[in-house]
Design goal:
With 358 residues, this protein is α+β, with helices and mostly antiparallel strands. The chain contains 8 helices and 20 strands. It binds adenosine-5'-triphosphate (ATP).
Length: 358
């Protein structure tokens, strides 16, 4: 569908804004690097205010970087206006025109570009079919559901056959169930068309489900970039481990490092775990245990008292008080397993090769 798939490269880009209160300049985006292959789907993920939208707007050309250079399809675009950049943006608000029908909304950009009428008709009908909105051409946009409006917004961007598609929190106005359906749809359509996509969200499960690679941002800088599996299983920092999924953080003593592993002392028990830490031998480190990586057992090395035991349907949710700290445990499909009750003694049962220190 796209005339040409284009890569996106951000080369040490920064954006400085003035704080409206203190009038002091600050880095809203600091030294961000990215090299996206054509056809790749990359998500910018992070808490509110971390700079995600600013990066997207700089790629689109609505803002210009104060430092660094942006390349689209190998071409330096810092000095190009948005309409010269071969990108199209799908907004959170959809930004559909309210008093015209679906067909004319999708055709709008093509009319501006002075395409012949029959070409416009063919392109618009093809795209509406792709987003499963064929037959709805004559509907006014205010007669559409939120999900349908988002499909039209997507069609309107795709019909321009841009080299790069940009998404600014496109699903945040939809209810939770529709968000899940639409994210699958967006990914399906993106893969079908083979278009390069940059997607902004603060929803980590959305980012996991939709992306080839995720960039996790914190206060203007990149904390980590990697595939959903990499950022989940090998987070570069406590911030990432905490932001992606749930995690228990337990302070430990690092005794010895060897072959990417470390011997640690955790509440008096000696274990060998994976080591992604910068800690030195003899120093402090943090043991990261995902709640689903651990179960409860009657025997073991690390014991404590159950402080919470809740049936959640798909899993039993526990908290175990160990060494003055509560460890969260999600025991999936507990139908045939022993259920530990509050006040009972229990031990943590986990495979040491499935946990790591940071
Ligand atoms: P959200 O998820 O809330 O949209 P975000 O990660 O997209 O957040 P940005 O909108 O990129 O964050 O904003 C990054 C920082 O820059 C924030 O501190 C924001 O207040 C600030 N900021 C954004 N636009 C401007 C502006 N035009 N002038 C001054 N500060 C700005």
């Amino acid at each position: 569908m796209a005339k040409e798939k284009k890569g996106v490269r951000l080369d040490h880009i920064s954006k400085i804004y003035e704080d409206p209160k203190t009038k002091k300049p600050f880095y809203a985006v600091k030294d961000v690097n990215l090299d996206m292959k054509p056809g790749e789907f990359v998500t910018l993920l992070g808490p509110s205010g971390c700079g995600k939208t600013t990066i997207l707007r700089m790629i689109a050309g609505f803002e210009s970087p104060d430092e660094g250079e942006i390349y689209i399809g190998g071409e330096a675009v810092n000095d190009l206006t948005p309409n010269k950049r071969d990108t199209a943006m799908v907004f959170q608000s959809y930004a559909l025109l309210p008093h015209i029908n679906v067909f004319d909304n999708v055709a709008y950009g093509l009319k501006l570009r002075k395409f012949p009428k029959d070409v416009i008709r063919e392109k618009v009908l093809n795209i509406l079919k792709l987003v499963e909105m064929d037959g709805m051409e004559a509907r006014m946009t205010n007669q559409l559901s939120g999900g349908q409006q988002q499909r039209v917004a997507l069609a309107r961007a795709l019909v321009l056959e841009p080299g790069v598609l940009l998404f600014d929190e496109p699903l945040s106005n939809l209810d939770a169930k529709l968000r899940v359906t639409m994210r699958t749809e967006i990914r399906k359509i993106q893969q079908k068309v083979g278009i390069t996509a940059v997607y902004v969200t603060h929803d980590q499960s959305e980012a996991m489900a939709i992306s080839d690679n995720i960039i996790i941002m914190s206060r203007g800088h990149m904390e980590q970039m990697g595939s959903p599996r990499e950022v989940y299983y090998k987070p570069a920092s406590k911030f990432v481990a905490d932001f992606i999924g749930e995690a228990n953080f337990i302070p430990v003593k690092l005794e010895k490092k060897h072959d990417g592993k470390a011997d640690i002392d955790v509440f008096g028990a000696k274990l060998t775990v994976l080591d992604y830490s910068k800690a030195e031998e003899g120093g402090d480190a943090t043991l990261v245990i995902r709640p689903e990586a651990v179960k409860l057992a009657d025997t073991g090395q690390i014991g404590g008292e159950v402080s919470l035991s809740t049936f959640m349907g798909a899993y039993q949710y526990y908290r175990l008080l160990v060494g003055g700290q509560e460890v969260q445990i999600t025991d999936y499909n507990p139908v045939n397993r022993k259920i530990y009750e509050v006040g009972e003694k229990a031990f943590l049962d986990f495979d040491p090769s499935g946990v790591y220190i940071l």
